[in-house]
Write a structure and sequence with these properties.
The chain is mainly beta and 414 residues long. It contains 4 helices and 23 strands. It has helices at residues 4-26, 135-140, 255-258, 361-370; strands at 51-55, 58-62, 71-79, 85-91, 96-100, 108-116, 125-129, 144-148, 151-157, 164-171, 177-185, 189-194, 202-210, 219-223, 229-230, 237-238, 278-283, 290-297, 315-323, 337-343, 372-375, 385-393, 405-411. It has a 5-stranded antiparallel beta sheet with strand order 16-17-22-19-20, with no helix packed on it. Strands 4-3-6-7 form a 4-stranded antiparallel beta sheet, with no helix packed on it.
């Protein structure tokens, strides 16, 4: 049975509390804006105190902080080469600010204001800056393209380690441009290969974009990609266990060349019983091939945002040996010739075993989308048998040394 007086008493208490909340809430003030709207602007920046130090594509502007008790910041306004306007603020705790984003090495106006806590602005002061060469122009001067297997190899140097995008385009016979690939990096120097191109003479163009949406001119070159093909994995097969060491079975080797590269959660080919260093061998079929490159894909899974990339038991260094007549007893001896050492590295140079937070977009793109590509030296003989040896893992442990998949490219013809 409901206790009516008790219910009424409780409703009365709630009503009083609600009215009180309205009363005190109505008495509060809005403190989101300036606390002192006095309408009095601060003194402007003293022009005699201003010095300018050039930077690549920008400058450091130093000044004497105005003697104003309610000064909030010094603000700079300027326009970069693309026409976009930028505003930069520096607090009263520092006596300088950085302006950047220009392409041209010419004088550019920058307008400085002193700003107080009431958001009053001083009269403007204009200073002219003469930047050093913009990073995008420095990088452009180092660009090169060379013919490579199935495409072209692009290389560059980026001494200021500025984040850039590199776009590769192909010029068609009718003059149209086709987007081929895009690569994002801030590495001090580097290279990337673009594959899937026909082995015929073609004209390619490179263009750079920086973080301020400035674009470079085109770097244009005509060249002929070298012919290659992905080898026929249906002809691949593991060799007997005697041609291996420190693994319990060769059967998982088939996963290395038969798996779908698009699988999100990636299984590995070794387990806790595998001892590092280990090696295992496989045949590519009855016909020997000249190898052009090998692509290695790391083991990883999605639930921890692929934090296992560049860490743990993932293999860090492989050696690849070739043979056409291996010793029947299986030893890794002079019947096997070392033709490639593959050391998996982070393009960013960030520390290993740091999880997903320790990876840049470029690090992840290589590990997940592109794979780690290793070029086989020109002049390497043809082989029918391959022996891969895991030398170390990222944690330098004694177990696993795993990978997800390899791709093998080359040609069966001279």
């Amino acid at each position: 049975m409901v206790n009516t007086p008790y219910v009424m008493k409780r409703q009365l208490i709630f009503a009083v509390l609600f009215v009180g909340m309205l009363f005190f809430g109505g008495c509060s003030e809005d403190h989101n804006g300036p606390t002192d709207k006095d309408g009095v602007p601060p003194q402007p920046i003293d022009t005699k105190s201003i010095t300018v130090t050039p930077l690549p594509g920008g400058a450091v502007i130093r000044y004497a902080i105005p003697d104003e008790p309610d000064l909030l910041a010094v603000e700079a306004r300027y326009q970069i080469s693309s026409g976009k306007e930028y505003t930069v603020r520096a607090s009263v705790l520092v006596d300088s600010l950085v302006v950047e984003g220009w392409l041209e090495q010419s004088e550019h106006p920058v307008v400085l204001y002193a700003v107080d806590r009431a958001e009053n602005y001083s009269t403007p002061v204009t200073v002219y800056v003469l930047p050093d060469e913009a990073p995008i122009n420095t990088i452009f001067s180092t660009l090169s393209m060379t013919p490579d297997f199935g495409g072209v190899m692009v290389s560059w140097k980026n001494p200021s380690e500025s984040p850039i995008a590199i776009y590769l385009l192909r010029e068609e016979e009718n003059g149209d441009l086709t987007d081929v690939d895009a690569y994002y990096t801030k590495a001090k120097e580097g290279k990337f290969a673009v594959r899937g191109q026909e082995a015929k003479e073609m004209t390619f163009r490179l263009q750079l974009r920086d973080k301020w949406q400035n674009y470079s001119d085109y770097y244009t070159q005509t060249l002929r990609p070298l012919f290659e093909q992905e080898l026929d994995y249906e002809k691949f097969s593991p060799m007997e266990l005697k041609y291996s060491n420190n693994i319990s079975s060769v059967n998982p080797l088939t996963k290395l060349w038969l798996r779908d590269l698009k699988v999100v959660d990636r299984d590995h080919i070794t387990d806790i019983t595998t001892q590092v260093p280990w090696n295992a061998s496989f045949s590519i079929g009855d016909t020997p091939a000249t190898f052009s490159r090998i692509v290695i894909w790391q083991y990883g899974w999605a639930y921890n945002n692929y934090g296992v990339f560049y860490s743990g038991g993932n293999a860090r260094t492989y050696e690849f040996y070739g043979s056409n007549n291996p010793t029947p007893t299986g030893e890794l001896d002079e019947s096997w010739e070392l033709f490639l050492t593959a050391d998996i590295v982070k393009p960013s140079g960030e520390p290993y075993n740091a999880g997903s937070d320790g990876m840049t977009d470029e690090d992840f793109d290589i590990a997940f989308n592109r794979g780690h590509e290793f070029m086989v030296p020109l002049g390497t003989p043809k082989y029918k048998y391959v022996r891969m040896k895991c030398l170390r893992t990222f944690e330098n442990g004694s177990a696993y040394g795993h990978s997800y998949r390899i791709q093998v490219f080359g040609t069966y013809n001279d």
